[in-house]
């Protein structure tokens, strides 16, 4: 079930807290226009290797939006974007880390404006999403997706 919070990031309830990751993969990308596409490919390849493709389209959409936001608004010029994928017993989590200031927030899109819908899409598609501080500069924007305990074939 997607997040129902209208204007703020979602948080996992204490009974939904993530257990230790069963699997995880991380990749660092230079801040470039091609980063969102490369991040989508990295996440899709990782999930395919893990046999966890049941929500691949939703996850690809979310990683694309989060990586795009990091490139456009987060990572400083010459900076990098870190993408992490974590597989937990019943949840899959994607994270995008950047070194920029500010906290992303869902906003109302303006009519036919080209931008401003990324976090609306993430909120509609992911089961949970949020923003975390990091040690040092920047932030981590994440999205989580429930999955079955048994991998797909």
UniProtKB/TrEMBL annotation:
Residues forming the Histidine kinase/HSP90-like ATPase domain are: 39-143
Keywords in alphabetical order, please: ATP-binding, Kinase, Nucleotide-binding, Serine/threonine-protein kinase, Transferase
The record ties this protein, via SUPFAM superfamilies, to: ATPase domain of HSP90 chaperone/DNA topoisomerase II/histidine kinase
Q: Which InterPro entries match?
A: Anti-sigma-factor_SerPK, HATPase_C_sf, HATPase_dom
A GO molecular function assigned to this protein is: ATP binding
Name of the protein this chain belongs to: ATP-binding protein
What species does this protein belong to? Answer: Streptomyces dengpaensis
């Amino acid at each position: 079930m997607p997040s129902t919070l209208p204007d703020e990031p979602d948080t996992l309830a204490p009974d939904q807290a993530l257990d230790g990751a069963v699997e995880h993969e991380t990749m660092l990308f230079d801040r470039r226009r091609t980063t969102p596409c490369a991040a989508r490919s990295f996440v899709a390849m990782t999930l395919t290797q893990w046999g966890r493709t049941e929500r691949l389209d939703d996850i690809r959409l979310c990683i694309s939006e989060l990586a795009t936001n990091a490139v456009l608004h987060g990572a400083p010029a010459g900076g990098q974007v870190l993408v992490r994928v974590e597989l937990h017993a019943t949840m899959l989590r994607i994270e995008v880390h950047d070194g920029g200031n500010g906290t992303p927030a869902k906003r109302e899109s303006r009519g036919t404006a080209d931008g401003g819908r990324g976090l609306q899409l993430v909120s509609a598609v992911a089961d949970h999403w949020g923003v975390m501080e990091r040690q040092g500069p920047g932030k981590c924007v994440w999205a989580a997706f429930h999955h079955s305990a048994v991998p797909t074939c």
